[in-house]
C-alpha cells in the first residue's frame, strides 16, 4: 500500500523565485529550484520556501531540521541559470521521521516529503494535472548518509487526489511485493532506480550511481494517457528512454519528493514491519526540481 496523506491546506499563489535558465525552454508551472540566498530556516516559512512548510514530515520536526544544504557539490544540470546558480538540497530521515496521519502515527515508514507550496490536492485545480507536463528532478548520493537499499525508498511520486494510487512512482532499492516488486533482496535489486506507472507496473529501470548527478524527466500527456521517461547523467542533455507508454493519468493530485523508507518484513507497510535504528541520518540530495508545461512538444533537455 502506498502511503496516504492528509489533505493539505490550499495556499495562496505567490511570486515565483524563478531564475532564468538557458536550459529551461518551457513555461515553469512549479519551481523547486533553491535560490542561492535561501537558508535552512527559509524552508519553515510560507513566504520564503518554494515548498509547503507543513508537509509531509515527522510530527514535531521542522524542515530546517530535516534538510541540509550541501555546499561543495557542482550544480545539477537544471540548476545552472543565466546569471546565478540555484543550489542542491538534501532531504534526510532518522528515527524521528514519523508522520501522523488522521489515522495515527505511521510507524511503518520513515519519511520526509516536500510538496510544492502551490500544488493543490484538488483534481484539475492546477496546471500540473492537465495538458502535457514534464516533471524534472536530479538526484545525487551522499556517501556519508547512504540509503539502506535492502529497503524500498519512494523518492518522487505524483499521488492522486484521492490518495488511492500514484500516476508515477520513482523508487530506489528492493521494491516490496505490496508495491509491485518481488521483495527479494539482491545486489542487483539494491542498486536500482525503478520508474513505475499507475498500478505500479515497471516502466523503466537504471542503476543508482555514486558521485554523479542523475537527471530524470517524466512526461505525462493527460490527453493521450501516456507516460515517457527521460534521463541523463551530469551535464548531458536528457534523452528519451522509453516510448510514450500508455498510463492512467487521471485523478489529479500532488508531486512529492524526498525520502519515504518502507519497512521490511511487513504486512501493511504503513503500520508494521522492521526498521533498523538509523545512526545519524540517511539522505538523498536533489537539484534542478521543476515542473514545466510541455504542450506543443516543448521539453527542456
Ligand atoms: C532571494 O532572492 C530573491 C530574488 O532576488 C528574492 O525575491 C527573495 O525574496 C530572496 N529570498 C530571501 C529569503 O531572502
Ligand atoms: C503556512 O500557511 C498555512 C495556511 O495559511 C498556515 O496554516 C500555516 O500556519 C503557515 N505556516 C507557516 C510556517 O507560516
Ligand atoms: C511529538 O511531541 C508530542 C508532545 O511532546 C509527543 O507526545 C509525541 O510522541 C511526539 N511525536 C513523536 C513522533 O515523537
Ligand atoms: C545576466 O547576464 C546577461 C548576459 O551575461 C546580462 O546581459 C544581463 O544583464 C544579466 N542580468 C542580470 C539581471 O544581471
Ligand atoms: C539494512 O536493512 C536490512 C533489512 O531491514 C537489515 O537487515 C540490515 O541490518 C540493514 N543494514 C544496516 C547497515 O542497517
Ligand atoms: C483510471 O483510474 C481511475 C482511478 O482508479 C479509474 O476510475 C478509471 O477507470 C481508470 N481508467 C482506465 C481507462 O483504466
From TrEMBL:
One Pfam family per UniProt: GH131_N
Residue ranges constituting the Glycoside hydrolase 131 catalytic N-terminal domain according to the UniProt record: 28-297
Cleavable signal peptide: 1-18
Superkingdom of the source species: Eukaryota
Record protein name field: Glycoside hydrolase 131 catalytic N-terminal domain-containing protein
Protein's UniProt keywords contain rRNA-binding: no
Keyword tags: Signal
Amino acid at each position: 500500500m502506498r502511503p496516504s496523506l492528509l489533505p493539505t491546506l490550499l495556499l495562496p499563489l505567490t511570486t515565483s523565485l524563478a531564475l532564468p535558465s538557458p536550459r529551461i525552454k518551457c513555461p515553469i508551472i512549479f519551481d523547486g529550484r533553491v535560490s542561492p540566498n535561501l537558508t535552512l530556516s527559509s524552508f519553515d516559512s510560507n513566504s520564503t520556501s518554494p515548498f509547503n512548510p507543513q508537509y509531509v514530515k515527522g510530527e514535531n520536526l521542522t524542515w530546517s531540521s530535516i534538510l541540509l544544504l550541501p555546499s561543495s557539490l557542482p550544480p545539477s544540470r537544471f540548476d545552472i541559470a543565466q546569471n546565478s546558480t540555484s543550489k542542491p538540497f538534501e532531504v534526510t530521515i532518522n528515527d524521528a521521521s514519523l508522520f501522523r496521519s488522521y489515522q495515527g502515527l505511521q510507524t511503518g515508514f520513515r519519511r520526509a516529503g516536500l510538496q510544492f507550496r502551490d500544488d493543490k490536492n484538488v483534481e484539475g485545480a492546477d496546471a500540473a494535472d492537465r495538458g502535457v507536463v514534464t516533471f524534472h528532478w536530479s538526484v545525487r548520493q551522499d556517501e556519508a548518509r547512504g540509503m539502506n537499499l535492502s529497503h524500498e525508498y519512494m523518492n518522487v511520486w505524483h499521488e492522486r487526489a484521492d490518495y488511492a494510487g500514484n500516476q508515477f512512482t520513482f523508487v530506489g532499492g528492493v521494491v516490496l511485493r505490496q508495491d509491485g516488486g518481488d521483495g527479494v533482496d539482491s545486489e542487483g535489486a539494491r542498486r536500482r532506480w525503478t520508474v513505475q506507472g499507475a498500478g505500479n507496473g515497471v516502466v523503466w529501470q537504471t542503476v543508482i550511481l555514486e558521485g554523479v548527478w542523475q537527471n530524470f524527466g517524466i512526461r505525462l500527456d493527460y490527453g493521450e494517457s501516456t507516460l515517457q521517461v527521460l534521463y541523463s547523467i551530469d551535464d548531458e542533455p536528457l534523452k528519451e528512454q522509453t516510448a510514450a507508454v500508455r498510463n492512467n493519468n487521471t485523478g489529479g493530485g500532488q508531486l512529492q519528493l524526498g525520502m519515504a523508507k518502507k519497512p521490511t518484513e511487513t504486512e501493511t507497510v504503513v503500520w508494521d514491519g522492521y526498521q533498523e535504528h538509523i545512526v545519524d541520518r540517511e539522505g538523498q540530495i536533489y537539484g534542478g526540481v521543476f515542473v514545466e508545461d510541455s504542450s506543443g512538444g516543448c521539453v527542456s533537455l
